[in-house]
Amino acid sequence: MEVGKIAKSDDTRINDEITASSCRLIGVDGSQLGLFAIRDAQRVADDQGLDLVEIAPNAEPPVCKVMDYGKFKYQQAMKAKAARKNQSKVEVKEMKFRPKIDVGDYETKKGHVLRFLKKGARVKITIMFRGREMAHPEQGLNVLERLAEDLKPYAAVESKPKMEGRNMLMLLAPIKGAFDEDKAASDTK
Question: I want to staple 170 with a disulfide (CB 3.0 to 4.6 A). Which of 56, 68, 107, 161 is the partner?
């Protein structure tokens, strides 16, 4: 068992894995040291107690850098973790309506859709048709158009209403900044 080997999953070659005969060497501080034979470059890295890492294998000659490979991998992992932490995951919520929905139910469901939009989620509106309701898809279209009109200041229609089997679908996306004045008004109270 060799001591000092670092387990790695990427295709970066370090130390004895470098197959080129010569390389352009970059020092620890980022300065160009010039063209070196691989053995000489490895000796420079060993003298400093660091690793020789091939950073541009496709260049002619390949570019190698003297660095602490373990520290380099750790910093890369931290950058990737920070990038994942800062990215926002767009959620798609679904709200189901019926073509013959009553006013009270419509207002309640519209409130739920508005709450989803306020949280930044996209909302898929589904009108479900049963039996003979399929003969009148315009009733479902009227409900979707009415909802889109009621939510116009807060949401944009991302995909127009379309039939898929017994369901009619429409996708709403929140408009950026639409809820900002609501927050400002509630803060002043």
Answer: 161
- Closest alpha carbon to 112 in 139, 146, 147: 147
Look at the pTM and tell me if it is higher than 0.85: no
> Which residues contact residue 6 at a Cβ distance below 8 angstroms, ignoring those fewer than 6 apart?
14, 69, 70, 73
What is the C-alpha to C-alpha distance for residues 105 and 124, in angstroms, rounded to an integer? 17
CA 101 vs CA 108, 133, 155: distances in Å? 11, 12, 21
Q: How many CB atoms lie within 10 A of CB 53?
A: 22
Residue 101 neighbours by CB distance under 10 Å: 18
DSSP code of residue 126: E
Bridge-based pairing of strands 32-37 and 22-26 is antiparallel
Per-residue pLDDT of the chain (189 residues; tens, 9 = 90+): 444 555 545 677 888 788 888 888 888 888 888 888 888 888 888 888 888 888 888 888 888 888 888 888 898 899 988 888 877 777 888 999 999 889 999 999 999 999 998 888 899 999 999 988 889 889 989 999 999 999 888 888 888 999 999 999 999 988 887 777 655 555 555
